[in-house]
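Table 4 source record.
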Amino acid sequence: MVKNVFLRGVVCAALVLALLPLAGGGPVTAQSPRGATPPADETVQATWTLIPGRAKDLSINAAAMAYAAGNDGVALRWRATSQKWARMSGAFARITAAEGNRPWGVTEDGNVMRFNGLWWEPKGDKVADVAGDAVGNIYIARVSGAVEKWEPLSQSWKPVPGQMARRIALDIRGKPWIVTPTGQIMRWEDGVWISLPGVARDIALGADGSAVIVDASGNLRILRSSPTRWVPYTGVTGVVSVALTPNGGPWVTLADGRIFATVLIRDQVPLTEEEDKDKAETPHAPVPQAPLAQAKPIIAPQITASSVQAGDSKAAESTAPDAKADTPTAQGIGTSGGGSGGGSNSNSGKSSVSPGGSGGTSDPAASTTNEKLEFVDTRGTAQQIAIGRDGSVFALDTSGGITRWSNTRGAFESFPGQLARIAVDSQGNPWGVTSVGRVFRHDGTAWVQVQGVTASDISIGGKDDIVLLANADGILSRFDMATGKTSNVPGLGVQVAAGPDGTPWTISKDHIAQRCGKSPCTPLFQLARSIAVGPDGTVFLVNTNNLLMRKRPADKKFSQVLVPGHTPASVAVGPNGFPWVVTSERKVLATRYFERNESGDRVLALKSSGDTSGSGSTAAVVASQSASAFTFTKNLKFDKYKSSDAEANMGMLSDVHAGHTGAVYISGDTGVFKFNTKTKKFEALDKAFSNSSLADVGEDESGTLWALSQVAPARVYRLKGTQEKTYYVINSTDTNSPRNMAVAADGTVYVAVGESLYKKDASSNVFKQIESSDIFFVHLGAGGDLWIMNQSYDVQQYTGSKFENRPKGTAQEAQDMAVGADGSVYILDKTTNLLKKWNASNGRFDDVNITQQMHRVTVTIEGRPWIVNTSGDITSSGDIWRAKD
């Protein structure tokens, strides 16, 4: 996977040149052709310069980023401009520079950790060494000697077979070289380990193709070819650790921790978050190499661990800017009023503002309000919202249905189409990404597919409608309306927000909020779930503590904006910097309503085409990070409940069901019961279904309950308040077995009966067959994302024209599955009954590290899985399991 487009391009372009010093222009092998016999006393002359500080390990990558593990274990980052080390958090025995400002380290007790920009995240244990490169490759050597490679998409380690290692390094192509437990030197090439002569204690590789080792006697040696041999350096002995600058200049640490270098890294390289400077720049050399500074030499016959006395020049602590909230500025929550011009704010006395207000600028939407922000409850609900610079507000419900805010009627009104992500251009026309990654735009009359373009997220900024896209790998691109094509732009992120000038503001896979005007992106010192930029350039985000934050104009600090009585989940920003938020309960709150001519809105909605299925290429759409406080990890922990917690003391538990209001239900031999989040028990419904023998239960966004009969003929029951209505899926005499049911937010219902699939639109009373064969179970996600299990229990996703195996090619067999409104997909493996989660980025199902064998699964609108055991074999310890935060 491309982890840094800019840097990977530079590194790959330099590969041929970088390897020129080696025989035949290729990597050195043990079979390099022999040349003339080298002299017996062959050495490499070098001038060594004492570097401030003391360390026990060093690492430098191809982008000239240098890190060290200090004698006390503290992680250190080299500051090229000041020529000294800056202290970081964390304590390590081994450290490696990696992609961007994200080093990895191994602690004294063997835990391997990655710096995410704010803290160190654990990534494994029982590790002896770690090696990374500037484009994202990471390898480890376990304490056992096993060599493994990090798979970022599945967040797991993949074995590299064939050899044991105690030290590891990566060449410019990302291939590992190792030192085995017996000191043998080997490199990985085309799936096999190739031996090299010599015995080593440490190894380092340079971006120019050079390789050095620390031999068994503590001497530093460089690899030479024709014949292959290790030639010693003069001037230094007692070496413990070595690193190479991109152009092959060694840095070494001695036994007493002193650091010496043959060349210095002098130019400014990308700064870490801890240096808090907007001026950080990427080196612009044609190949990634460290600029050289000819140091004033230390003249000594031989540098040893005791021959030179130098003070320990410790760097001052480098402190990130204070990201704590300042004084909150928002007032209390009011309730939107009705009437003409709707949505009046009784608290502020202001019902709406036109974009820009009285700004008196050439771009009225771009002036920034200095008013206090007072949130108003619109009485509307949504999963996601987007606001255009003209003040148009569009929203998506939990099934991807589109709505548009009306000031006149004080409500969200239906708009044709179904999407997984939405954005709004300067003319008030919506754009979006479907559940299978196809991009659509509304031209003012109908939906039009943007041919050949796929994405996972979309945002539009500026008067000229700069369209930015992010794919599931985090690669950013810009769509050109004139050519109909996209081009990559610097930066990374799985969520993107376009600034007025087209600058991408993103959230990375690990929740880091960043500004990506250049590569690498500039971090904002916030972990975020949602980010938005207004036409005036005001930046808002919802952080992982569920706080709404607003960026100060002059610096990278954020101030908290209170949303009293509510928990923000996502944010959108309209003209003049007025935000709207979606809460954790999917309520939509507004700080201002934007005046605009709404006279044509209903006519447009009625005459517009609602077809957003499309054709052609598809792409993964990653689950939304802003759905709620729940965050998926592969090591999920669960709370346990018992079916006996139900008021009727359920004797036989059949299934668990999640609704579009966030409610969770169980069904069994004594009916349907709803989970009470306060008492933590399942309680009887106020009004029960007339039939207690049910195959499935669902709930739409209004709280209306739906149920499917367990026996033929297939009947669907709708329980609205105390009123029950019955629908026959086929007819009253049909004998096909009901399988299961999927309910959309708006009340659209899908039912699997026999081998066929039926659908009833929300506005209809009739079920129509939409698929005639090979259907077993049906499930519905965000944006109309339709999944099934076929008659062979294979998991499949609808692409708009057909059901396609997931993973593509050879499908996963499942006993049960569930799809959440946030896009998350879970299955229970047909063979093992163990829980797995769909990874849209790499197109496969990842194991969830739990050992409980379960039988049914559901996913709430926030992406939280619930699983149940229906056999009663673990009833004593709880048979209903809810994933913890």
